Amino acid sequence: MPIYLHDRYDKKIQEAFVKESVIKGLLANDYDFSGVKTVKISTLQTVPMNDYQRTGTNRYGTPVEMEDTVQELTMTQDKGFAITIDKGNNADQQGIKSAGRALALQIKEQCVPLMDRYVLDRLANLAGTIVGDGTAISKANVVERISTGTVALDDAEVPEGNRTLLVSATTYKHLRLSPEFIGAEKLAVKSLTKGQVGEYDNMRVVKVPKGRWPGGVNFMIVYKKSGCAPVKLDDTKIHQDPPGLSGNLLEGRQYYDCFVFGTKADGIYVDVDTSVKGVTAAPVVAVSSNTATITAVSGVSFRYTVDGTDPRYSPTAQDYSAGVALTSGQAFKAYGTKAGEYPSGVSVAVNE
Fold first, then answer.
1. Is the dihedral of CA 117, 119, 122, 123 positive or negative?
2. Staple partner for 334: which of 79, 129, 304, 325, CB 3.0–4.6 Å?
3. What InterPro entries does UniProt report for this protein, alphabetically (predicted)?
């Protein structure tokens, strides 16, 4: 890119239009990643209730040792930038490249959008429920489609508070025309969370710019405690006249990630326009002669578990290649992925 030395230009710099972060406050920060790269989350497994027996030895039922499952969260996104501002160039450009101003611009135009885009893409791909629909969102169906999502969360007993409805600009255009939508200008509050444009069905509505929005997604409903987006490092530095440079060296680093908790994944619902991007069909699983098999589909890879955990989030998930032997009563869970599509839901088969 060129560096334009000035004859006489106005000192006001035209900055790109950039929205502030839309993910702040979206997810909980219940886990501490200080000093570690990976956090393991244990979930206790309860047991079914029994009929109480008034005679015999095990009147409450046969004792069963409580088991647990583990999900591993490993940080992966380690990003950085380095910018030099030569003292001579800055002097010949009327001092428009002040270090502080340049650093703020870099954060606003590069760092924030990149992290937003990554987090939203992760949520779209790791959601507990991903529904594909080839019918485009419109004024006539937007309310019903969103209500279908809230019903899914309600049926999964996801708490009604702390839900956020994230929408594309197109979906927002149709939603705004519905009588159920409460626009920001009608809300009796002094201030709204940045990015919030209103409320719908007790959910705050956040409109997301196209450049940060996952491809093909119409909307997402996100329960705050269904995931986390830890930021372990968010450092910026300004070095004045470092060795080898007459001027300023600006450096920055962000170390972050986004995770969905397997036990709370049903708190994230994604509606996808399949005319734009597909959703992989759930695997067809059959169990015969104590062996589980999956019907092969061109271009689709499958992962499975046999320990009762969700293969989308479990560290015990394995790649499927051939029939898997099962013991009596053992459950086989599998899901599919295909390049360019969102993952399938989970298919479950039990060896009766």
1. negative
2. 304
3. Fn3_assoc_repeat
Could you tell me which residues come within 8 angstroms of residue 272 by beta carbon, excluding any fewer than 6 positions away? Answer: 124, 130, 131, 132, 133, 216, 217, 218, 279, 342
Host domain of residue 241: 77-273
Confidence of residue 93 (pLDDT cuts 50, 70, 90): low
pTM of structure: 0.87
Contact indicator for 338, 278 with CB cutoff of 8 Å: yes
CATH number of the domain within which 240 lies: 3.90.1690.10
Give the whole-angstrom CA distance, residue 24 versus residue 233: 16
Residue reference for tokens 């530095």: 237
Query: Residues 114-131: pLDDT tens digits?
Result: 999 999 999 999 999 999
Q: Domain end: 242, 273, 304, which one? A: 273
pLDDT at position 11 over 80: no
Domain count, the chain: 2
CA distance 139 to 175: 7
